[in-house]
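Second attempt. The first submission of Molybdopterin molybdenumtransferase had a stray character pasted in from the spreadsheet, which I only caught after the job came back as garbage. Lesson logged: always re-copy from the clean sequence file. Corrected sequence (393 aa) follows.
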Amino acid sequence: MISIKEAINAVEKNIDPLFRETVKPLERCGSYYLSKDIISPINMPPFRQSAMDGYALSLHNDLSYTLIDEVKAGDNHQPILKPGEAIRIFTGAPVPETANAVIMQEKVVVNGSKITMESNIPKDHNIRPMGEQVKIGELALKKGTKLTPAAIGYLTSLGITEAHIYKKPSIALITTGNELIEAGMPLPYGKIYESNSKMLLNALYNLKFYDVTIHKIEDDYAQTKNKLETVIKDNDLVIATGGISVGDYDFVGKALKELQVKEVFYKVKQKPGKPLFFAKKEDTAIFALPGNPAAALSCFYVYVYIALQKMMDNDTIELPRIKAKSISVFEKRGDRPQFLKAIYNDGEVEILEGQNSSMLQTFALSNALVHVPENVSKIEKNDLVEIILLPNT
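This time the job returned cleanly.
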């Protein structure tokens, strides 16, 4: 049995970035990372552009100008202005080459075909120059940039429709147990609704990992071994829940051993989630999480999350850890470090009731985990504690 720190270090050490490339339509590239630099195919803006609703001017020494035309956004005609002439213009519209300033409409008085300014304005005032954001042939976004909604909007504005990106890992979720049935079916005596697959699937979706398949296995050794062999061969990451202990019908561990996976560790000194298994088979990472839902989800956030970030070569691989003031009292039983479901708000954290590893009700209310180290036996009110902030809560 190893420590939490040793287990985290082992995950970090044994996971390498995937660095496999693919090309996707830009609208499907959200949260992916560019695998190639993107060079701008156009100037942005592609023409001199008005930054205001107002009047484009050919400047002269007087405050009065004669209106000769109008240009709206999307127009492609180029009125020719002489000094002292102006056109009505709107935000985003092309500024004629013979105009050299734009004055906002609130700063002029209009009298028929004449406008009079309050005061003189400088040359190029309120004109966005061609290529102000990026010029044709320049670097638009560099390799390794995360494609946020803003980045996708920016690239689309350059006329780009697809991007070379790093692939995200393919992931298989495996649940085991004869006692498990699908939600929505009648619940016979002795059965429970299977929740781990939906829980972990949505945890992955929440982190923008969508290449996920779910596999459900009964307590049968041959079926367990065959399914594990297949998903290990076909995926970058395999996450199994349940069946890793040493009971008569816990076949996952036995099957993995026969498949000759390289065990990195089995069992971590922690609560919940002691029977956590981590292994490699060639380039595939394998986690066998505890079957109890709250334990499985805790292990996912503390360990599997790190593996996912390492596969994507992200700089930040752990969830944020901060200090917060406890508004609760908690007394730890035993000497194992613990991860406690909690609610964090504005520098304070409340440790919730119902910390049993099988209970998800408390987890459903939580936005943080309180980490209670081995050498801490009791938390008093106003004690500073370390918390792990859960994603998107």
